[in-house]
């Protein structure tokens, strides 16, 4: 029995190598723990080779201010979760900004170890950093590591566990001078007791009060007398400093950090090889003229890889395997003398359900492979920089563009990709808009209808649909900005990290995490939905199995709801029934249409369709399909990413409502001309 | 002058950081404090945001947001 339950929190700036270090420490393993609740991006896993040691990776942060949802979650974990030790990972090539966070973490009264990362880059640039001096100034152990090269990790873990065991809390260092110093000390005395009572670190509270941090002031609930004294102290400080409290604190911290750098970095150079390289690459990738064409080429390539070549190759292999398994099961059932009901349940219900979950896997795997490379290489922030202006107009930032474009392929990975967005508001709005991007599963339907009704100008109709989707999403975004998503959008101030070669291990792990996450969270929902649809399709309202689907329960429901679509020009019950089956997957609309119209060849299907639709109502039907409720896999993903069924249900209502209104408008305006 | 008005390639020293709430907090946390040297590295293809260089790293910031920072141009 070695040490038991040491909780190590991993904290640092974004792009300082947090995830790489986490992966090296855990081997990529992850478990659900007390710190990682669904909805936050915190990861938690056992430390390899150290029994009972648990590491918690906090999403990257620049300070302990409450700025984004991640910041709030981080602060809560550090203050209330009380990890036993913090490993503060610091990008040694970007000392100043990283140490600014270090100063704040040191105030938490939690044992701490500093991991100086990217040391390989430091050495290759001939920069010299005096580790002993740094450790002396900060009063905490400082360890050089290179997370991507797996160097120094072993020692780091050792020192971290030791610091936790001995409960080595960093000393409060006086980084402030003059009036700020006086203010912090005076306030510390006043709040010491109330802070201790609610278990908050005194020094942290004092500096946060000087900064004017509202959550801390609220938590301490000081009496009027104390509040008045504090107000006077601050006013006095601001008066003498000729600046305000927020700026004064930030200035003091940075001034201290600058001094530390001067003392510790013994041989400094103005720029690094990596930085020069980034500037050279940026000359092309964010070039005024080339930036957008290059981005479009990359996106086209990713789509081709995902939906064209590699993805479809993997899908084909998978479906060969799946078909073989289904055939074996079918044969087994037949030879065991299973009844028609059981045979149909297993083959058309269970196997179809499993099959539809599996069909998403190659797409998710290939897409996240590409996205991980874009993200880890540092290209993604450049895309956001280049394209930001376009999305700013609809109240989003450049960060939302790539997830929205992925929506043209498949909403499921697109919604999963919004995880990289910094604010909950942006995320929610982006997720709401993604399903309006016409996904590739709708193409067979477009092809079927255009072949039947618009054989000569099919391209125009298709383009019209895609544009309608984009226009509707823009209009909805504008309306939402004025209503549901009011308030200041989170400012778009974004660090552009240097370009780095993505580590194969973290790319592979990211792909695996996404695939696994999708299977785990979406499987049940998709599975159940497919079986429900099968049941409704195969049984009559009298619960006997039907061979003719037009006598099924689903058809009965279709007949019941079809009047709703009368004002849109397609009141035929078969259209309504096909729309309902679209819930399981959008491709199902086509197959249901084919089955219900009893068409056997393309020609007869076209003839049957022309009895159900006029060209105008066919176009309205397509528009409705474009916009109405997404498939169950998307709904399951919305629920998972937004953290609740209510979001999934509101998506259903909202999109179906929008689809109805838009189709209604098109039908009635169209009727005036046709 | 405002940081948003600084021309591409020009250097300046930050004088004050205005704005309020989350934006101001973020700017200060990222090291845009008085007397810090900044340089405008680039302007995005659509004319906004701009890319600035300070404290050894690059930052993308919208012109609207850069307008809250006043600077003094230097050579």
Question: What would you note in describing this structure?
Answer:
The complex is a heterodimer of chains A (674) and B (75). The mean pLDDT of chain A is 88. Chain A has a six-stranded mixed β-sheet, sandwiched between helices. A two-stranded antiparallel sheet of chain A has the order 6-8. Helix content of chain A is 64%, strand content 6%. Chain A has 674 residues and is of the alpha/beta class. With 75 residues, chain B is α+β, with helices and mostly antiparallel strands. Chain B is 17% helix and 40% strand. Chain B has two helices and five strands, in the order E-H-E-E-E-H-E. Chain B has helices at 21-29, 63-66, and strands at 11-17, 37-43, 50-54, 57-61, 69-74. In chain B, strands 4-3-2-1-5 form a five-stranded antiparallel β-sheet. Chain B is globular, with a radius of gyration of 11 Å. The mean pLDDT of chain B is 93. Classes of the chains: A alpha/beta (674), B alpha+beta (75). The interface between A and B is large, with 44 and 35 residues.
Short description:
Chain A has 29 helices and nine strands.
Helices, strands, pairings?
The complex is a heterodimer of chains A (674) and B (75).
Chain A lengths: L5 E7 L5 H9 L16 E4 L6 E5 L11 H13 L3 E7 L3 H11 L6 E6 L1 H6 L3 E2 L1 H8 L3 E3 L8 H14 L11 H20 L4 H10 L2 H7 L3 H18 L3 H20 E3 L5 H13 L5 H18 L1 H26 L4 H38 L1 H14 L8 H6 L4 H7 L6 H10 L9 H11 L4 H25 L10 E4 L7 H35 L14 H9 L11 H9 L5 H10 L5 H11 L2 H13 L4 H11 L2 H29 L1
Chain B lengths: L10 E7 L3 H9 L7 E7 L6 E5 L2 E5 L1 H4 L2 E6 L1
Antiparallel strand pairs in B: 1-2, 1-5, 2-3, 3-4
């Amino acid at each position: 029995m070695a040490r038991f339950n040491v909780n190590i929190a991993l904290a640092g700036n974004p792009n300082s190598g947090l995830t790489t270090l986490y992966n090296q420490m855990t081997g990529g393993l992850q478990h659900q723990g007390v710190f990682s609740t669904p909805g936050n991006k915190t990861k938690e896993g056992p430390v390899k080779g150290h029994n009972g040691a648990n590491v918690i990776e906090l999403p990257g942060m620049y300070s302990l201010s409450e700025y984004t949802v991640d910041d709030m979650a981080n602060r809560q974990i550090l203050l209330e979760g009380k990890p036993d030790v913090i490993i503060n990972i610091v990008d040694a090539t970007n000392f100043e900004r990283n140490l600014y966070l270090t100063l704040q973490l040191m105030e938490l009264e939690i044992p701490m170890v500093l991991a100086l990362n990217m040391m390989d880059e430091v050495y290759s640039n001939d920069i010299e950093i005096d580790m002993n001096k740094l450790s002396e100034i900060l009063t905490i152990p400082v360890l050089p590591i290179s997370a991507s090269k797996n160097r120094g990790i072993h020692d780091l873990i050792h020192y971290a566990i030791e610091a936790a065991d001995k409960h080595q809390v960093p000393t409060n260092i006086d980084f402030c001078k003059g009036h700020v110093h006086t203010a912090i000390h005076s306030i510390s005395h006043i709040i010491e007791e109330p802070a201790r009572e609610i278990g908050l670190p005194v020094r942290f509270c004092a500096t946060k009060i000087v900064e004017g941090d509202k959550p801390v002031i609220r938590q301490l609930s000081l009496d009027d007398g104390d509040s008045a004294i504090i107000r006077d102290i601050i006013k006095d400080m601001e008066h003498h400093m000729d600046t305000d409290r927020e700026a004064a604190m930030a200035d003091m911290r940075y001034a201290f950090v600058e001094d530390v750098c001067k003392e510790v970095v013994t041989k400094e150079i103005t720029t690094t090889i990596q930085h020069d390289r980034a500037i050279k690459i940026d000359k092309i990738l964010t070039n005024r003229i080339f930036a957008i064409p290059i981005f479009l080429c990359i996106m086209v390539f990713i789509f081709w890889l995902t939906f064209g070549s590699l993805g479809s190759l993997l899908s084909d292999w998978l479906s060969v395997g799946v078909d073989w398994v289904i055939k074996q099961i079918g044969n087994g059932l037949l030879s065991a003398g299973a009844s028609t009901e059981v045979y149909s349940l297993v083959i058309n219900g269970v196997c179809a359900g499993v099959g539809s979950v599996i069909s998403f896997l190659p797409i998710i795997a290939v897409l996240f492979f590409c996205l991980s490379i874009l993200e880890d290489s540092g290209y993604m922030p450049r895309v956001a920089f280049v394209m930001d202006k376009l999305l700013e107009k609809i109240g989003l930032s450049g960060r939302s563009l790539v997830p929205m474009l992925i929506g043209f392929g498949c909403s499921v990975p697109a919604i999963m990709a919004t995880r990289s967005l910094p604010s909950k508001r942006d995320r929610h709005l982006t997720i709401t808009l993604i399903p309006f991007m016409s996904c590739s599963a709708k193409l067979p339907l477009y092809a079927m209808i255009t072949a039947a009704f618009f054989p000569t100008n099919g391209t125009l109709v298709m383009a019209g649909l895609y544009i309608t989707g984009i226009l509707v999403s823009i209009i909805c975004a504008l309306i939402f900005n004025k209503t549901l998503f009011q308030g200041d959008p989170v400012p778009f101030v974004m660090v552009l990290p240097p370009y780095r070669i993505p580590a194969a291990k973290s790319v592979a792990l990211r792909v695996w995490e996404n695939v696994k996450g999708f299977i785990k969270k979406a499987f049940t929902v998709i599975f159940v939905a497919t079986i429900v649809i099968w049941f409704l399709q195969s049984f009559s309202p009298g619960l006997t199995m039907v061979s003719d689907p037009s006598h099924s329960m689903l058809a009965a429901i279709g007949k019941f709801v079809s009047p709703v679509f009368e004002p849109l020009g397609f009141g035929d019950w078969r259209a309504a029934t096909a729309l309902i089956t679209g819930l399981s997957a959008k491709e199902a609309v086509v197959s249901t249409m084919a089955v219900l119209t009893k068409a056997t060849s393309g020609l007869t299907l076209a003839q049957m369709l022309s009895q159900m639709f006029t060209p105008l109502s066919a176009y309205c039907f397509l528009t409705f399909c474009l916009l109405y409720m997404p498939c169950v896999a998307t709904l399951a993903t919305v629920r998972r990413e937004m953290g609740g069924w209510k979001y999934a249900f509101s998506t259903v209502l909202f999109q179906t409502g929008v689809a109805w209104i838009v189709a209604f408008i098109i039908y009635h305006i169209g009727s005036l001309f046709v | 002058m405002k940081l948003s008005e600084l021309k591409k390639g020009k250097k300046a020293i930050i004088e004050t950081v205005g704005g309020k709430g989350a934006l101001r907090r973020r700017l200060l946390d990222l090291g845009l404090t008085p007397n810090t040297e900044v340089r405008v590295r680039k302007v995005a293809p659509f004319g906004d945001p701009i890319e600035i260089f300070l404290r050894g790293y690059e930052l993308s910031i919208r012109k609207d947001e850069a307008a809250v920072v006043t600077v003094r141009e230097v050579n």
